[in-house]
Specification:
The complex is a heterodimer of chains A (about 230) and B (about 350).
Chain A: E1 3-8, H1 12-24, E2 28-34, H2 37-46, E3 51-55, H3 63-69, E4 76-81, H4 87-92, E5 97-100, H5 105-122, E6 128-133, E7 136-141, E8 145-151, E9 154-159, E10 163-167, H6 170-176, E11 182-186, E12 189-192, E13 196-199, E14 203-206, E15 209-212, H7 215-226
Parallel strand pairs in A: 1-2, 1-3, 3-4, 4-5
Antiparallel strand pairs in A: 6-7, 8-9, 8-12, 9-10, 11-12, 13-14, 14-15
Chain B: H1 2-37, H2 44-77, H3 83-104, H4 112-161, H5 163-177, H6 184-200, E1 208-209, H7 210-227, E2 234-240, E3 246-247, H8 253-262, E4 272-279, E5 282-290, H9 301-313, E6 318-324, E7 328-336
Parallel strand pairs in B: 2-4
Antiparallel strand pairs in B: 1-3, 4-5, 5-7, 6-7
Helix pairs in contact in B: 2-3, 2-4, 3-4, 5-6, 6-7
The chains are: A alpha/beta (about 230), B alpha+beta (about 350).
Chain lengths: ~230, ~350
């Protein structure tokens, strides 16, 4: 699936950053960018778009106001802001994410992955995310993901038939995964709840592997698994 | 405190005095009038007319002073080159006052000297009123101007430091750096933004996650090293076992700042050492740097601040030792972050 997106920001340079990043994300197509929020709004009313990157502070129309106008349109909003004091307001109008300027590529990717999962959920497709393994983009199907292990700066995504690695912290990975479906069980491990086959005092069995279970996370694992 | 209290009841003092004196004089006037016009109240009208005459004259003079202030004074006094016009006008004003008096006394030649004198008194009154009004106005204007100036300066200062402006400006630079072949510039801008954002925003909090703090420190150290002629002059080792913990933001920064500021010399034989580990909620920090014959000295304010924060937030849960010998300066700190820290505020 390719996400169709537009960007709205009153500063050309801010749009340039988003365009440059979007070009590097394989599952995102930034169709058009708008300096004028009203033009963007008009475009949204007549075109099918999945994701809108929206600047919060614009002179004519605040992004948060625009977001209220967009409430009836089925689109995922990602706010982009220079300073975070509008962020809270952003979540009140149900934004998917908010990015702080300057937006780095890894952070941009994280937001895009969230949007991808949101879209997959809307279409009842199985969720997935994209990670960067060296120079390659790799798609990880979350249904097939068993657990994630961290080792120094690298994360290893263990699937039934393959393992992919990427440079990321374990808490960043947890942010990207759907809540409730994945759980942290140890400082270095996240496991898929559906893949847990056995819980013992100090370890879990996930697929064919034994994963250590830290006592500090035990309560949450039991709550998620046993309801 | 006491002066404020005093201010609060001064209006009551005034009100009491005004009512008391008003009653006193009213009573006296009543006594006096009863004595003079007892039984001949029809003659009281003459007295009232006489009194009203004075009120009319006084109001007329005040009105004249006010008009003189609003008109000629504002037209001519404020400009240096017009001051002689104003002075000529005042002479004419005196003349008109005299003329009015002379007319009202029926052009009587005997009364010229009295009329001149009375006109002079009226003239002095009008001029004084004008002068005082001008003084009050210019003083108010000055105060307002000063206030506006201060507000404008403050506004300018604020807009310079406005975080929206700051981060938008950094974003503009970032957009120019992104297309470049060399990625280090874009990364540097991103790191700098992260540092500024952390110090502007997160540092207001009592505690941040260890991950946020370490990201900040790594960025800070990275930018410091980028400035060094020989980055190998400092030996850095940061380890974290990914266990979750909270830490007061920027707690260790003064030590690290000092290390970069005073501990590193281009011609050093031994590198400075910085080691930080957080394992199972135990923080171990070590900084070591060789001493030099001509060593700069800091003010010690930063270190004092760390000591205060540790004493407040980790009483009995930390150990700090700062040792200085001929050859080496060393800071060792151990904090148990996992145990319940004291939350301020």
């Amino acid at each position: 699936m390719i996400l169709q997106a537009i960007a709205i920001d009153d500063e050309p340079s801010a749009l340039k950053v988003l365009e440059a990043h979007a070009e590097k994300i394989p599952f995102l197509n930034l169709k058009q960018s708008f300096l004028n929020p009203t033009e963007g709004l008009a475009y949204l009313q007549s075109h099918r778009v999945n994701v809108v990157f929206l600047d919060v502070q614009m002179p004519d129309l605040m992004g948060t106001e625009l977001a209220i106008l967009l409430r009836d349109i089925d689109v995922q909003l990602i706010f982009v802001t220079a300073y975070a004091d509008y962020a809270v307001q952003g979540f009140q109008v149900r934004a998917l994410d908010y990015l702080l300027k300057p937006v780095s590529l890894p952070r941009f990717l994280e937001a895009c992955n969230r949007a991808l999962q949101g879209q997959q959920k809307r279409l009842n497709q199985s969720p997935s995310l994209f990670i960067k393994d060296g120079y390659d983009w790799v798609k990880v199907d979350l249904d097939k993901l068993l657990f994630i292990r961290s080792d120094t700066n690298l994360l290893f995504f263990h699937q039934a038939e393959k393992i992919v690695s990427t440079r990321m912290t374990i808490s960043k990975a947890l942010d990207m995964l759907p809540k409730g479906a994945f759980v942290r069980v140890h400082k270095s491990y996240i496991v898929a709840v559906h893949a847990i086959r056995k819980i013992e005092r100090h370890q879990l069995t996930v697929g064919q592997d034994q994963i250590p279970l830290a006592s500090s996370y035990k309560e949450e694992v039991q709550r998620l698994l046993l309801g | 405190m006491s002066s404020k209290k005093w201010n609060n009841w001064t209006p009551w003092v005034f009100a009491t005095l005004a009512i008391g004196l008003g009653g006193f004089w009213g009573f006296q006037l009543h006594e006096s009038l009863t004595l003079q016009y007892a039984g001949e109240w029809d003659q009281l009208g003459g007295f009232v007319r006489w009194l009203m005459g004075y009120v009319v004259i006084l109001s007329g003079l005040i009105l004249l002073g006010w008009l003189n202030f609003r008109g000629p004074y504002q037209w001519w006094v404020l400009l240096e080159e017009d001051k002689w016009i104003y002075r000529s006008w005042t002479l004419l004003l005196y003349f008109f006052l005299y003329l009015f008096l002379h007319w009202s006394t029926g052009w009587e030649v005997d009364l010229v000297e009295e009329n001149l004198l009375v006109a002079l008194l009226a003239f002095v009154f009008v001029m004084s009123f004008t002068f005082v009004a001008g003084l009050v106005k210019s003083r108010n204007q000055q105060a307002k101007l000063l206030q506006e100036q201060t507000a404008a300066e403050l506004q300018a200062l604020r807009s310079q430091l406005n975080p929206h402006f700051l981060f938008n400006a950094l974003n503009t630079l970032y957009s120019r750096a992104v297309p470049l072949e060399d990625e280090s510039l874009a990364e540097g801008i991103e790191e700098l933004s992260g540092i500024l954002r952390f110090t502007l925003q997160q540092s207001q909090k009592d505690f941040v996650s260890i991950e946020e703090e370490l990201t900040f420190l790594e960025r800070y150290i990275g930018l410091q090293q980028a400035r060094m002629a020989k980055p190998e002059n400092i030996d850095i080792d940061i380890r974290w076992d990914q266990s979750e913990a909270q830490i007061p933001p920027l707690l260790l920064l003064p030590f690290i700042e000092n290390l970069f500021k005073y501990g590193i010399f281009p011609k050093s034989e031994r590198p400075a050492k910085l080691s930080l580990s957080i394992e199972e909620g135990q923080l171990h920090f070590l900084s070591q740097n060789p001493m030099y014959p001509i060593q700069q000295k800091g003010t010690g304010k930063g270190v004092e601040q760390v000591k205060r924060r540790l004493a407040l937030q980790y009483p009995d849960q930390h150990q700090l030792s700062i040792q200085q010998s001929e050859e080496q300066f060393e800071v060792r700190l151990q904090v148990s972050l996992a145990s319940k820290a004291v939350h301020i505020s």
